[in-house]
Write a structure and sequence with these properties.
By secondary structure, this protein is α/β, with parallel strands linked by helices. It is 26% helix and 21% strand. The chain has 7 helices and 7 strands; from the N terminus they run ααββαββαβαααββ. It is globular, with a radius of gyration of 19 Å. Belongs to the methyltransferase superfamily.
């Protein structure tokens, strides 16, 4: 079980500090989904939705459902609606359910237009997930999963290996590496390359499979500089995105 699913996990604090995702990412996904005439914007589901940071961005779809195996996460997502509204969703457009991504018993066959997952796909069992997604997606429906690896300071490239060593090293006295849950963290740090192509699991069920990587260029001119104690700095998270369409 991931730490997020434990009864002692503080979901309110998690929701307060969790990064959100750029509007351009969702625009790219919606454009990918809608580029063929048969594309529908009826139902979207968010797998491993956590407290709903990505779920509330799916408002181009008439019906939105966020699924997470943790009842505490779903409870916090619902509290977020009560406290902050639905992020532009209409009343009744958005709901949350407790469910594992690999077994969406409440979802009918061929009833979903878009499946997304934000920073959760590294916890899934893809030998079961690909068949389940192929079951629920309509023909020409889309799947989009994304996740970000360790942060970088793009203006201070020299800091990157130091950050990586601290976050992913092997020395338990000087690194967080030994304390991450594996293989989940290793999969995200490897930019989802360990997630199998759908044709390996369900041959012929998907087409237009893509792996896309987004990362800002580091400023080599400032490579030797060190930020001052009071200086505001830009933090960048490299992003991996997987896209595919249901055949």
């Amino acid at each position: 079980m991931a730490t997020f699913g434990k009864a002692t996990f503080n979901t309110a604090r998690y929701a307060a500090i969790r990064p959100t995702y750029p509007r351009q990412l969702f625009d790219h996904i919606f454009q990918y989904h809608g580029r063929i005439p048969s594309a529908r914007f009826d139902t979207a589901v968010d797998l491993g939705c956590g407290t709903g940071q990505a779920t509330v961005e799916l408002t181009p779809f008439r019906h939105i459902v966020g699924f997470d195996p943790s009842a505490k996460m779903i409870e916090q997502a619902k509290k977020g609606i009560a406290a902050n509204g639905t992020g532009g969703a209409l009343p009744g457009q958005l709901r949350y359910e407790v469910s594992r991504a690999e077994s969406l018993y409440s979802v009918k066959d061929s009833s979903v237009d878009l499946v997304v997952s934000a920073q959760a796909a590294h916890w899934f069992d893809w030998a079961k997930l690909w068949p389940e997604v192929s079951r629920i997606l309509r023909e020409d429906g889309s799947i989009a999963i994304w996740g970000y690896s360790e942060f970088r300071l793009t203006k201070y490239a020299k800091a990157t290996p130091l950050i990586t060593e601290y976050a992913q090293g092997t020395d338990p006295r000087n690194s967080l590496g030994p304390y991450w849950q594996r293989p989940g963290r290793s999969i995200i740090e490897n930019h989802f390359l360990d997630i199998p192509d759908p044709d390996v699991v369900v041959p012929g069920a998907f087409y237009d499979f893509q792996r896309i990587f987004f990362a800002a260029e580091e400023d080599e001119k400032r490579d030797s500089e060190v930020p001052g104690n009071e200086e505001e700095i830009d933090v960048e998270w490299p992003l991996a995105l997987i896209l595919a369409k249901r055949a």
